[in-house]
Amino acid sequence: MSILNGPRINFFGGIEVDVSLPNNLDEYQIDSNGDPVPVDKQNNRTLNPVFDSKTSMLTDFVYDNNITDEQIITMLRGPTDSHGVPYFTNGGWNIYGQHSVVTNNVNVSSGGDPGAVTESSPFTGQPIYILGSANPDTGQTGVSSPVMVDLNPIGSQYSQIVLGGLLIGDQNKPLLHLQGDRICSNVLCGKPGGLGLDQKILHGASDSPGSSMFTGTWQVTYTREEIIACGQSADAAANTAINAFIATPGFEGIVVNFTFFEMCPKYDTDNVRESYNTNEDERNPSVGRIVGTIGIAYSGETAQSPDGRLLLANVSTDSGGKKNNNNSYATSYACAFSAPSKQAFLAVNMLTTLTQESFRLKRDDYTSSTIDAAINVGSLSVTAGGTSVGNLIPDYTNYYKYGGIVDLSISESTFTSIQVASLEINSASGASPIKSLNLAEQDYRIYSSEKCLYMGEDSSDTHTVSLQVRYLGQPVPKAIKLSVKPADWDGLNKESYLDLSVTSVSLTEGQLCASYTLQNSTTAAAEAGYEQVEFSYDSASYTVNTRKYMYTDFGLAKGATVTWDEVYKHALRFHYLNFPGMSTVFPLNMAQTIQQNKDGIKQRTSSEYRPTTLYMPVVRSMSPSQVRLINAYSFGTPWDPDAKI
Amino acid sequence: MKMKRLITATLVTFVAACGTQVHKKDSQAKLLTPACWMPVAPPEVTDGQAAFDTYSWKMFVALNWPASATIRGEPDCKKPLSASGPKVWQTFKTSSEIFRVDGVSPGPWQSGYGSGPSVSEIKQVSKASNTVAISSHQEAVGGWLIDQQGNPTYFQMWVNRNWYNYVLKNNLYNKDNFSNSTNIELPWNAAELKSAWRILQNADDAASYITQVSEVAEFDDTGKATGMTKKVTLGLVGFHIIYKPEGYPQWIWSTFEHVDNVPDSIYDPGTNKVVPEPALDINYSYYNATATKVNQSPCQISDPSDCQPFTTPNPLTRLTPVRADAKTANTEYQTKQVQGTVLENYQLITTQWPTQPGNPAALWGDPTPTISANTTMESYIQTSSNCTNCHGMATLPGLQAKSDFSFLFGEAHSQIIWQKARKK
User: Fold this and answer.
1) What confidence tens digit (pLDDT) does each residue in A347-381 have?
2) Is A600 on the interface with B (CB under 8 A)?
3) Are B5 and B208 a contacting pair, CB within 8 Å?
4) Which candidate, A31, A287, A488, B422, has a CA 20 to 30 Å from the CA of B251?
5) Chain B CB within 8 Å of residue A228 CB
6) What is the set of domains in chain A, with CATH numbers?
7) Rounded to a whole number, what is the distance in Å from the CA of B319 to chain A's nearest CA?
C-alpha cells in the first residue's frame, strides 16, 4: 500500500525497452533448403522449427537440412508475404536489440502527502533514472543498463526487469541514489491466474504489435541500507524534503512502482527495412511512456507487488455467483487508511483503468512533456457494500502527473464501514461502453513478490514461494485452503518437472500469508522447459511461472577436450542467432573472439553476477550445462558436467 | 593503383587565423576556434548526425594540420593546411612510446621534442631509429589484412597530450600499478587515434596519401614475425579518431578512409543486396572485381590458427554504404574546405556519438548509428562493428576495472617482470 497510504513522489517521462526478439518464435517460414518461404499471413503458413527455446539449441530440422547461419539470419531479416511484400515476423521487430531498459526524460511531476499532492512540490522537475548494477568486483557504477529478459522468450506474459538502482537528481549531486540488485516481474492481475494484460489504449499504434494497447507494471523495494547518497543536490529545499521523506515514521525503505504504456517499436516496417537493406541494422526498441510513484516501504509490505485491495474492470458474475473478469482490461488498487488526528482517505491507483482512446500521433515522440488525456467518464461513484462512500472526479487530463492515484477523503465512520464491504467504482449509467468505467473488488486476493522463477537444474532443487492472501484487504476471516495445481494459460507450459503432490496450502483465520515450496521431481534433471503453478481460492488466483534448464553432459565423456564445433553447436549457436545485437560487442560465432573474451565471459556468466544487470542478457537463456561447456572450451579444461559456475 | 588527382597545392589558401586555443564550450567558442585547432566545443545532441559529421571533419583537418616544430602535438597555424611535414597527430605519442617494455616512466609529453631534432628528424627517431618498429598487423577481429598488392596492412595507435598526461600523472604506464586503480577516467579532450597503413608501391600516387617512412616488421608465409624489418613508405588508408569532448563521457568516434580503398556501395533492390559501384579509372587497394569471396577473414572462423598464406590478398567491399549525412560532409570538405590538399583524398565513413551522454541508465550513452566500420580496421565484422559497444568492454588487463573505453592499457608492461628478466 506504500504508494497509496504515505507521502508520494510521482514521475513520468519516456522509456525505451530494447529487447532482442529473434526468438519470439520457435518456428519460422523457412524451407528445407534454408530458403525463406513467402507466407500468406492469413493462410498456408509454412513454418518449420528452427529454435528450441527450452534447451536453447537449434532443432534437428536445422541440422538435418544443413541450414546455415547465414540462411537463418537472412530469413529473420527479410520475410515477405505471398505477394513479396516485406513484413515483420513476430520476432522481427527488434532483431538487433541489446535488452536494455532506459528511462528518457523522466522527471518528478508532483509530490506530497495523500490529499495534498501538488505539482509545486520541492521534488518537481528533478530527473529520475532507473539504473544498472554496480560491478560486484570493482563497485564501479554506470557500467550497465537495466535489462529486460523474458523468462519464456516465446511467451507474452513472462517479462522481467533486472534493476541495479534508482537515481533522483544529478548523478554527481544526487538528491537520492539507491543501489541494489533486483529482478522484478510484470505485475499482472487482470485475469484469472494473475495473468493477462491490462489494456489502456483502445486503439493501438499502426504497424505495431497488439501490445501497444497494453500496460506493464513493475514494483521494486529498496532498503534503507541501499541508500548510498541522499540530499546532496544543489537544491536546498529538495534536500530538506527528501531528508524529511526518509525520516517519515515507519520508514523502512523506498518502494518504486511504475507502469509502461503507449509502447510500440520506434521505427515502422519501412524504416526498418530500409535500415536492413543498407546493413545499417539499427536497433528498434519499443518506446513509450513511463508513469510511476515513489513511496515509503513500511513494515510487512510486499516488496515487488502492490499491496491493497484489487479492483477489476468490467466484472460480471457467473451462474455460480463468482465474480469473473474475463472481459476485463484493467486493474486498480485501493487502500483506505486513517491515522489519529489526520484526515482519513480512500486512495485508488487508477493509472491503468483511466483509458486512453488512441495512441500518440507521432510514434517516436515519447518523451514529450504531455501525455494524451484519458477518456473522461465523468464523476465516479464509490460504494462499499452498496452504500455510497462518495464521488471521485479524476483529473482526466493530468492524471499521469499524479501517478494515476486519486484520493477521496472519507469520514472515520466510512473508513470503518468499508473495511468489511466490497468496493465498487462506477461511472454514471447510460454512457457508451467506451465511455464508462465499472470497477468491482475481487474480495479475496492472492499475490506475491515472486512471479517468474528459475528452478535449479537438479532433481533436488527447491524454491519457496511466499503468498500473500487477503479478504477485502484484511487477513482472511476464516480458515481456508488454497488449491495448488499445474496451469497452462498460454499453451506453452507442457512440462511436468515439478513435484506438485502437495495440492493445497492452508491458512488459519487471521493469517496474512503462507508459503509453498516448489520442488523439482526426482526425474526432472534431464528436462527443460516451462511450467506454471496456479494457487487459487474462491474467485482469486495467482500463477507462478517457472523455467527449468536441462542438465546434460551433451554426450561428451567426462575429461574430454571440448572442440569448437561442439561448443558452437551445443551452447553458442542458438545465442549467436537469437541475440545478433551481441555481435556488436563481440561475435559469438568466432573462436577467436570467444578466446579473447573468455575471462569476461566466465565472470559474467557466473553465479555471482546472476542477480546483476552485468549478467549477460543472452545467458539467462543459457543453461548451466551450456555455461560449463563454454568455460571448458575457452580455458581448455577437461570437460566436467558438474563443474562449479 | 595510381589515381591521378588534381592536387594543386599552390592554389590552397586554407588560411586560418591562429590564436589562443579556445577551451570554452559555447557558441562563441565554436565560431572562434581556428581550423588548425581541435574543435573543443562539440555539437549538442539535438544538433543531429550532420553536425557530428561536420565535427569529425573539423577534427580531421585540425589533426592533419602541419605540426609545430617546437611544441609537440600542436599545430603551426601560420602554415597552410597543405604545407609539407609531419601532421599534428604524427607528433603525438604512440602507444609503444607510452607503454615502454621496461614499464618505466616515458617522461614528460614534450620530452625529445622541439629543442632537439627538427620535426622531420623526430619522425625518423620514432620510426626509423626506434627499436620498436611498426609490427602490429592484426585487426581487432579476424586476423590480418593483405592488400591487392600482397602486402600487409599495418596499424599504429597514438594519443594526445591530455590522454598521455593522465597516464603519466597516475603512473599507469607501468602495469604493476593497475591493481591500485579501480576507476579509469580519462580527462576531457583526451584523444586516441588508430591509423592503418599500407605499403606504397611505385605505381601508387603517393601524393594522394598521408605518408610516413617507417621501419616495418616482416612476416613469414604463416604470418609469424621474422624479426627482420624493412624501411618503407606507408600510405594512410584508415584513421579512427576517438575524442572525448566535454559532456561526452562515452567519447565521439569518427572514422576516415582513403577514397581508393574500396568502391562506394549502394543497395540494389534487384538482388536485395548492397553492391559495389566501382569507378573504371581507379585501381582500388582492397577491392577485386573478380573475387568471388570477399570480406572473409584469412583464418578459419573455428580455428584462428588455420589461415591462408600471409601474402594472399583479402578482397573487400563496403557492406554498409556511407550514409547520406557523411556524404554531404565529404562533398563539402573535399570540394571546398580541403580541396587541393591531400585530405581531399579521404572520406568520412561515420561519426558515432552518444545520443544520451548524460543518462546514467543508457548503456554507453545509446550510441548512434549502430554500425560503424572502417574497411581497413573492421574488415571482417563490418555488419556488426559498433565502436562504443566494443570498446565499452575494455578493462584494465587482467582486472575488471573499466578502462574508459580504451584497449590501449592492454599494451602496458610490468616493470617488476622486466627487472626480474634482466636479472636472469
Assistant:
1) 999 999 998 989 999 988 999 889 999 999 899 99
2) yes
3) yes
4) A287
5) no
6) 2-19+98-442 (no CATH), 26-77 (no CATH), 445-548 (2.60.40.2030), 564-635 (no CATH)
7) 7
